[in-house]
Batch of 2 targets.
Target 1
Amino acid sequence: MKYDIVAAGHICLDVCPAFEAGQAQDIGMLFRPGKIINMNGITVSAGGPVSNTGFAMARMGLRVHPVARIGDDPFGQLIAGIAAGETGVRLPCRKGSRTSYSVVLSPPGIDRIILHDPADNNEFSADDIDFRCVREAGFFHFGYPTVMKRLYENNGAELVRLFSAAKAQGAVTSLDMSLPDPQSESGKVDWKTVLQKTLPHVDLFMPSIDEALYMLDRPEFERICAGGRPDFSRIRTLANRILDMGSRLALIKCGVHGLYVKTSAGMSGSFSAREIFQPSYRVERFVSALGSGDSAIAGFLSAMIRGFSLEDCARIASLSGALCCTAYDAVSAARPLERLLELTDSPLNHTELPASHLRYHDKERFFTS
């Protein structure tokens, strides 16, 4: 089978208890020692970017080859079955290995809390990838090296080896991150140095604004964590840093505000030397933000592979992220690419970013100086 993309990296089993509507919206009141919290069902699904991005792309109509490490335990068997059903590829279960899992606590009105065990994801390396498949597909996406020990230790030497090998196959490469816990081993890594070594081999770098600030502007990240108002005027500077490090496209996810894309002159066609802001789409029935950023990337990559314009890629990305928020998992709300394009006329959130040096034009969805 000829695949459109290889989606590799972190995978886990997501266990998402469903909270009752109208419960306490203060985290301290909701999770008190000794308290029983009544729930309303549970969702068990594959999680992580191989699932959230890769499986969503398969539902959008792309032929996806997933690559990830799972064990031969019950969680691994579940994920292997899900992968086979979504993509036609059954992930191999490694004998004696443990499968990663996340318990996702996402009460209405409260930012989610994730209890995560990386398990065998910590052992992932470039040797787990068949680069012949990468060459045949022509697109390679990797997600979450921030929670995969072998990829972030030694200043990301293994991550650099992995992307260098993928790029050597002539593939278009893309990289997604997750926000490290500052107190964890990953949180103490010099991510700016890691990116300086890795991004020359990455065509599309797609972090959230939190992740970009954490890795490239730590003082601003810490200011916001201390209660400061986010300063979105820094987004252009962040994107320029990403392009200066070697990536040809920076897509920065800004949550409810939308997403920002800046490209270098090294991109072709409608993608060359562009700067676009795409507002977010209105979510009428919000359920969970779990995987919404991964879903946005799925929409962008799927549209790009199918030859859509940069504007349509951004619209489909934003819409995919919004649709994801209507479900507890990150895949079930995905739609075929043609249907997503039809829905891009849906109502937008007309939230203007507080960036004095950028002017937003409703019709063209551009920022200009």
Target 2
Amino acid sequence: MNEQYLIGGVPAEELAAQFGTPLYVYDTGTIRRQYRKMCDAFHFVPLKVKFACKSLNNLSILKLLRGLGAGLDAVSIEEVQLGLFAGYRADEILFTPNGVSFEEIQEAVRLGVTVNIDNIAMLERFGNVYGSTVPCAIRITPHIEAGGHHHIQTGHIDSKFGISIFQRRHLMRVVKTCDLNIIGLHMHTGSDILDSQVFLQGAEILFDLAKEFPHLRFIDFGSGFKVAYKPDDVVTDMDDLGRNLSSRFLEFCAEYGRDLDLCVEPGKFLVSECGTLLVKANVIKPTISTVFVGVDSGQNHLIRPMFYDAYHHIMNVSNPYGLQRVYTVVGYICETDTFGWDRKLNEVREGDILAIRNAGAYGFTMSNNYNSRLRPAEVMVHDGRAALIRRREKLEDLLATQVPLEDSFFVHHTERPALV
């Protein structure tokens, strides 16, 4: 008996055979399920879901989410442009940059998206140029330390993100002096947050500040919802969060005097579980202490295990009933790049296909060409049909932006002085 591992109803080995490895595969059914789950959890309020483009920026994914009703959370002008190219209206995009030039802010204004400003100096400059003629939003740092790895904690006192809530008096002086039209307040405290009380604590900070702004249209609570990476992993209780945050939000709107939109910016929650990275076992290498499985991928394709100490479940889809053995799965990069230490896998043979799970978020988007390796293809499985949505890179792609100099440039025509 051979139990096939299916992605959206299509056997993983068939996908690997058709499109080659390494290969990112996305199941749209999972995205649709997660989107519905989030909307159901917040069905009490006027919810605006803004997908975090940084998590998975393939145009086909963006179009799928736009069709479901999502807006877009963009953190660079390039993400804004991708969103517009994917068919989003400018008013569906919130642009929340960090540390960018004023020219990038001006380009966003020209494109018509709402700019979410995260430092007082930029806010003041924005106000001096646009005054009340161009509405904007403000990102607040609530001084809450929450999230998983310290690299993804963004709301604490030492974070580079946002305007500190303790700068409130200075903030209000700038807003009033520059006659700014503030239409939204925003926070994002981090990622992989389990405790829904973290969001409620941050919400109270925003609600209190919101009383200072009479023309708000929305309050944006960011994201950071924990998803399952390990079997039986603990996750954010979305139903509990939706019920409690919605109830408190409606109370605030009654106090404020009119209804506002409640915005969230999920990335992982919508696309993490949809993605699988399929890789091929190139070599089985026993050493005196470890048995390594070397695969045809590496941290250049999925950096999360090395960068965040992240766990990704790994399965041998070619030999699902093989005897379980302990392996360390590693990549082909010229430094230690480990996908998983001491993992129990069904016996791995050269040529077997391994599935690295939960690779939809911050997988391909954080990939690179280290060691001059090429990035993989991306495939979408929709209603049982597989379609290529990004071709595999070729060597020509690595050379496309280089400007090689002629050999004559390196010829040194000045003679060396004679030795005496």
